[in-house]
Amino acid sequence: xxxxxxxxxxxxxxxxxxxxxxxxxxxxxxxxxxxxxxxxxxxxxxxxxxxxxxxxxxxxxxxxxxxxxxxxxxxxxxxxxxxxxxxxxxxxxxxxxxxxxxxxxxxxxxxxxxxxxxxxxxxxxxxxxxxxxxxxxxxxxxxxxxxxxxxxxxxxxxxxxxxxxxxxxxxxxxxxxxxxxxxxxxxxxxxxxxxxxxxxxxxxxxxxxxxxxxxxxxxxxxxxxxxxxxxxxxxxxxxxxxxxxxxxxxxxxxxxxxxxxxxxxxxxxxxxxxxxxxxxxxxxxxxxxxxxxxxxxxxxxxxxxxxxxxxxxxxxxxxxxxxxxxxxxxxxxxxxxxxxxxxxxxxxxxxxxxxxxxxxxxxxxxxxxxxxxxxxxxxxxxxxxxxxxxxxxxxxxxxxxxxxxxxxxxxxxxxxxxxxxxxxxxxxxxxxxxx
Length: 435
Hints:
Elements: E1 7-11, E2 21-27, E3 34-35, E4 40-45, E5 50-54, E6 59-64, E7 71-73, E8 77-83, E9 95-96, H1 97-104, H2 113-119, E10 123-124, H3 143-152, H4 170-180, H5 213-228, E11 231-239, H6 241-258, H7 265-278, E12 284-287, E13 290-293, E14 299-301, E15 303-305, E16 308-310, E17 313-314, H8 322-337, E18 351-355, E19 374-378, E20 382-388, E21 391-405, H9 411-426, H10 429-433
Parallel strand pairs: 14-18, 18-19
Antiparallel strand pairs: 1-8, 2-4, 2-7, 3-6, 4-5, 6-8, 9-10, 11-21, 12-13, 14-17, 15-16, 19-21, 20-21
C-alpha cells in the first residue's frame, strides 16, 4: 500500500506574452505511474509553440485533472503527484489485457486480434509494447522524438542523429521518413486498379481531426491580414548568376572557416535590409491612425514545420555578417522543426522573407505577417532564356514577389523597393561594400 505522503501540484507555467490558454497535447505518464523530479510529464500546445511541463517532485502521478485535448489556462492545476510513494505498481495488482490494450493502443502496430479476443479479461502484469517501444534507443530520446517514432513507426536506432552527442532529433526522424517513403508504384489501369487486378475496392473514407492551436492561430492571422490590410503584390525576376558563381567559388572555404554552409538566405536578407534603409515605409507598421517607422531590422524567416508555418526572427540582422546570419537562421530553423522555439523568438519582426522555392514553387503571392507591411517571396531558380545586349542567353532566373500594405506603401515605392532588391542580388559586391 502507498504511504501517506505530501501532494505536489502540476500547474500550467507562463506561456509567454499575450498567451493565456493552451491545449493538453499529450500526457506522457498515466495515473498510478512513478515519476521523477524534472521528468517531462505533459506537452502543452499553444497557438505558437509546444511546451513541455516537468514533474515538480519525485513520486507517483496520483491524479490527472485535465485529459488530453482539454483547454487550460496559466496557473491552472492539471495534475497531482504523491511524493515519496512507490514508483512501481503494488504487488498483487494487475490489469486485464483489454485495459493494457486501451492504454497502449497508440503504440501498437501489429496485433493478433484473434489471440487478443480470446484473452480479454485474463490478468496481465506487464505493459504491452510495440517493437519501436522495445528499441534500446526509445527511452534515451526526447519525449517529442518518442512520440514521432510511434506515429511514424520508425526505430530511432535506424536513424543517424545530428543532435548534441549524436542524439536523434525530430528533424532527423522526419528526414529519415521522407527518404524512406518512396514506394515503387505498380502500373495502374484506367479503373484505378493495378494492371492485372480484378478486385475492386473502395477507399471513400473521411477523417475528422480537430485543428491544432497552431493551425487555428495561423488561420486567424492570415484571415485577419486579408480583412484589415490592403494587400497588393508586385513581381520581378532576378538573374542569380553572380550569386551562384560566388557560392560555387567560396562555399568550401566558407564552410571550413565558419562551420556553416553558405546558403541563399543570407544574400536575400542582406539585399532586403539595404532596400529597407532606402524605403522605410516597407519596414513600418500601422498603429491606429499612426505609422511607426522602425529604425532597426529584425527579419522574420518563414520556416515550414510538421505542425505548420512559423516565422522565427533574426534580431538586428543588419549588424550580422553573412556567416552570422547563416548560423542564426540555421539554428532557428532547427529549433522550429524540433518544436523548441521560445515565444520571444517569434515576435517583433519588422519584415519577413519566405522561400517557397525550396518546395518547387515557381510563382506565388505571399500573405503579410501582421502588423508588418511587407513580405518578400522567393521562388524556384530555373534556367530560362533571356536577352542580354541583344543576344539570347540561358541564365538561372528566380521570380520575386513583394506583397505590401497599400495603406502605407504606394505602388511606386513597392516597385522601386523590389528593383533595389533585384539590383543588390545581381551585384552582390554591393552587399559586401554596404552600397
